[in-house]
Amino acid sequence: MIKLIDKGYKYLLLQLSDFLGIAKTIVVSLKSIEGRKKYENLFGKKVKDKKETIKVYVLHTNQSLLIDFISHLFKKPTSSAIFHDYIHSKNSNFKIIFQDTNKKNKKNVKSNRCCITLVLQTLLSDFFEDTLDVLKRKINIPYKVKPLIVKGKDYMETVLPLDQILAFQHIKTFKGYLGNLFALNPSLDSYFNDLQVSMGYMPQLEELAFNNIFKLEVSRCKLGYSNLESFIRDYNQNQAIGQELKIRSKEKITLSSYRRNLKMIYPYLDKYAGLLIQECRNLNLIGDKIWIWDRRFFECNCSGLKNKETGLLSDPDAGHYVKKTGKYSVLSGTGYTDTCIVDSWWGLPIYWDAVNASKNDNTIFQDTINQCMESTTVKPFFVIADAGPDSHPSNETVVEKGVIPIIAARKNSAGNILKTEKGTHFRAKYIPRIYHKLLGKLYNIRTTVERKNSNDVVGYNRSKTPTRGKVWAKTYVSISNIAALLTALTAFKVGRHELIRAPGAFRRLNI
């Protein structure tokens, strides 16, 4: 009989001794060096060391961590590395594996798939009274915040006729006229008139003045004209548009002069938009608590075919866009991308740009965040985005700005992934623990930017620009967003908050 001693006892019967009638017992201890040598002499092989099995768990959104309750043991802020050293110093047999998403262990990370804790699972935190305020309280995230209280007579009394004032106050179906946009926002005339004087420009016709050119372009957006030629033709033939905009001259304008003056005011549109955005902040229309990013594709006046000699498109700044929108449907075309950041309260834009549509979501998102943060001193708490820009660099770009990224992760993402009740995934590495339970509510706010994009496409018919070039694409995007800001300010000043983000408001002509 051979007896092996190693943590437990194992018995191995030597069959030859049964035939000889001799029973011999040999005790071999595998814990000592001599016992291991004796084992090698008896069996002619070395002792196999047992491999420790390491259990890896995937944490759910509602899962509490031990580190949440022992952080007071450390003087410095507790991190994964400090926690790792602390555990190793107390018990050398306890091991924690921290996995990185580098290329060497990418296959190993993908293979470590474990169960995810259900939402209804009882947690350890449910029995701690000190954490009830953070983990169990009901938190309501406001989707819309009421603007400041405004009295209609403060803005309308000396500006609008009495019948329109009464209509705004008592007729809910009355949505105003196109001229209300410009009558209740006098900063428009003052800004562009001062700009024209500073540039020393003297237009030949009244219609070609900077303020009138801007009004005409905003009117073209509100009325849903897709191209310039049809709008200018209707303006020259129909005097109602000029009367609505209070343009007294009845001279006809040409397409070339209209495009020339519109191109002259393009560099100054962003500055005027900044004045409107600041006014919206003062009136509590923009809260700057949660920002939402998304991109929207729009076509340009380009066939999409490259020149055989130069290898470039007829619009060299544009790019080809392809996106799968369904199981058997694909959205494709040549044009630009409207990369926009909107505020969560009323869906008003606070930053926008037009870029090549062929660029990747990660590149566009990172550039947009960097440029937006450089253009303003205001900083939100959260930035929400869909799974398009999901990557570590995109999350790190937001974190470097001191903002928490709520960027949806793809289902096949590696690492510590959180999962909400609706099945949306997030990277837990970049989201603080106290916000894990709010991920579902926060991500629901992302539909705000989708409604804004829908207003541009359906309400304003802004799905294709009739021009070519990056300058015209940026002008096209700026006019759309400025029209949304003017609509919100006008709705606030007439006391009709339900019209703040209604593309159909202030569109009719007062004939």
TrEMBL record:
Entry's Gene Ontology molecular function annotations: DNA binding; transposase activity
Domain of life: Archaea
InterPro entries listed in its UniProt record: Transposase_11 (IPR002559)
Species this chain originates from: Methanosarcina vacuolata Z-761
GO aspect biological process, one term: DNA transposition
Protein name as annotated: Transposase IS4-like domain-containing protein
Ranges of residues in domain Transposase IS4-like: 347-454
Database matches in Pfam families: DDE_Tnp_1 (PF01609)
